[in-house]
């Protein structure tokens, strides 16, 4: 069953990316389409699979698992240096 979608686009040498993750939402509209073009593909959510329903709880688990899978150490954005370009 589909629980998330990942998108990557490259346009004029720039990359764009996004992630959608079904946490606790009304999945009824997905019954009227072919998700990702696959007829009969079932769509589910974190809540339907017995996971947490709050975004902060899901965010914490998702970040922890991504860091573990990719061998990363994550730091809060507020702890990052300001890398913006001078005006």
Give a short overview.
This protein is an alpha+beta fold. It has one helix and two strands. It has one domain.
Q: What report would you give on this structure?
A:
This is Lipoyl(Octanoyl) transferase. One of its GO terms (molecular function) is lipoyl(octanoyl) transferase activity. With 87 residues, the chain is of the alpha+beta class. The chain has one domain (4-73). Helix content is 18%, strand content 18%. It is built from 1 helix and 2 strands; from the N terminus they run ββα. It has one helix spanning 55-70, and strands at 4-11, 14-21. It has a two-stranded antiparallel sheet with strand order 1-2. β1 (4-11) and β2 form a beta hairpin. The longest helix is centred in the C-terminal third of the chain and has 16 residues, at 55-70. The termini are far apart.
Order of helices and strands: EEH
Alpha carbon gyration radius: 17 Å
- Terminal Cα separation, in Å? 48 Å
Strand order of the largest sheet: 1-2
Low-confidence stretches: none
Helices, by number, come to 1
Strand content: 15-25%
The largest sheet, given as strand count, sense and whether it forms a barrel, is:
2 strands, antiparallel
The count of DSSP E runs of length 2 or more, i.e. the number of strands, is 2
Amount of helix: 10-25%
Mean pLDDT across all amino acids? 88
- In total, the number of domains comes to 1
Which class best fits the helix and strand makeup? alpha+beta
Query: Tell me, what's the shape?
Result: extended
GO molecular function: lipoyl(octanoyl) transferase activity
InterPro entries: aa-tRNA-synth_II/BPL/LPL, BPL_LPL_catalytic
Domain BPL/LPL catalytic: 1-74
Protein name: Lipoyl(Octanoyl) transferase
